[in-house]
Design brief:
This protein has 204 residues and is mainly alpha-helical. The protein is built from ten helices and no strands. The relative contact order is 0.25.
């Protein structure tokens, strides 16, 4: 039987965790501003979260936390992925010419959008910790019906957030027709990627 209270708690906790500015949100925000495949990026990001939340609900988070090798692979793999994207952002920030949002949308294929979004979902240790470990441990406080109701609430939060971020950010597009604003955004995103990667390495 569906438990409304558990669903609402999952919705609230899910929003609380996902709204924090991080690598995944920075990527979705940038591509939404650039009008680069916002639908596929939002859908893939939300489905990635749904997959991780489902794993957490099934108890996989406890396994990852208890096996040093798995934890290390997730941590270092995520750090390398974030460093790679950070380098791309810095290169974009220091280019002599910056494209307008509409022009930038011509350079990201659906395949590239999906693969990069999957990387931010499945190779991002912060996302794994939030969804698989933390949400999984909270859902474990419920019986089976409440556990899946909680997971449904968290998954709903992910879909609402990513689609809202991807499409609402486009309203700021006129501001980003100025090349200097794009440079500042790309530089800031590069800093976010590098800082999160550094924190992961230090924690490891």
């Amino acid at each position: 039987m569906f438990e409304v209270a558990a669903f609402l708690k999952g919705l609230t906790v899910g929003f609380t965790l996902i709204v924090a500015i991080g690598a995944q949100n920075a990527f979705v925000l940038r591509q939404g501003l650039a009008r680069q495949q916002p639908f596929w990026i939002a859908l893939t990001s939300a489905l990635g979260d749904a997959f991780l939340i489902t794993l957490g609900t099934l108890g996989v988070g406890s396994l990852i936390a208890s096996v040093p090798l798995l934890r290390g692979l997730a941590l270092w793999g995520g750090a390398l992925f974030l460093l790679w994207f950070g380098v791309k952002s810095f290169r974009s920030a220091f280019q002599t010419s910056t494209l307008t949002p509409i022009q930038q949308g011509q350079f990201l294929t659906v395949k590239a959008a999906i693969l990069t979004s999957l990387g931010f979902s499945l190779l991002n240790p912060h996302a794994i910790l939030d969804t698989v470990v933390l949400l999984g441990s909270i859902s474990g406080q419920y019986e089976m019906q409440g556990r899946w109701s909680f997971a449904a609430g968290s998954i709903t939060a992910s879909f609402v957030w990513f689609f809202g971020l991807a499409y609402c950010s486009a309203t700021l597009a006129p501001l980003f027709q100025k090349p200097v604003v794009w440079k500042v955004l790309d530089f800031a995103i590069g800093l976010v990627m590098f800082s999160i990667a550094a924190m992961l390495v230090l924690q490891g």
